[in-house]
Amino acid sequence: DQEKFKNLLQLLEVFCSIFGWCVNMAKSTLLGINVDEEFIHSTAVHLVCEVGSWPIKYLGMPLGGNLEKLDFWEPIVAKVTKRLDRWKRAFLSRGGRLALIQSVLSSIHSYLLFANF
Question: pTM score > 0.70 for this model?
Answer without folding.
Answer: no
